[in-house]
Prior knowledge:
GO terms for molecular function: actin filament binding; ATP binding; microfilament motor activity. It comes from Pan paniscus. The protein is of the alpha+beta class. The chain has one domain (1-163): Kinesin motor domain (Kinesin, 3-Layer(aba) Sandwich). It is 45% helix and 13% strand. The strands form two sheets. The chain has a two-stranded antiparallel ribbon with strand order 1-2. A two-stranded antiparallel sheet has the order 3-4. Helix 1 runs antiparallel to helix 2, helix 2 (25-49) packs across helix 3 and helix 2 crosses helix 5. The protein is elongated.
Amino acid sequence: MLQQTWTSRCLMKFYAVVAASPASWESHKIAERIEQRILNSNPVMEAFGNACTLRNNNSSRFGKFIQLQLNRAQQMTGAAVQTYLLEKTRVACQASSERNFHIFYQICKGASEDERLQWHLPEGAAFSWLPNPERSLEEDCFEVTREAMLHLGIDTPTQNNIFKVRRKATSLMFGRDDGQPFS
């Protein structure tokens, strides 16, 4: 678990305990649900916002702001998480020994044969924007990301739409722009 994730979790747990009235089991359960939902967002944010850099295999390339929402009795009633990419250029360009965002490797390594067909990802394809695919990292776990997306309410059809590589983009990645199928 990332240090920032661990710190966020500790602070939320502390606040949930301090803010929840000892007599209010309901407010404690609400705080726990909110905390769990925020924590479930981490694998998704890491997959889409972290990359392997020269210094760190799981370097955060995004910023995150967590706002806890309280009622008049200072009990946690909700939360909002705002994220923003710090390094948008990573999608198109990385240093020679670095990798792109984790999600691209997760998809290529974790997609089933049927998903690869549905998402227009030929088996064994080499993508110019996906350097160092032979490196395996703990962060390459696609199932963890997909499960977290389900917990956040992103259903399987929506996930499939997110992971689908558009035909024009796929053609350009392989140096073809004639729209013909790959052989």
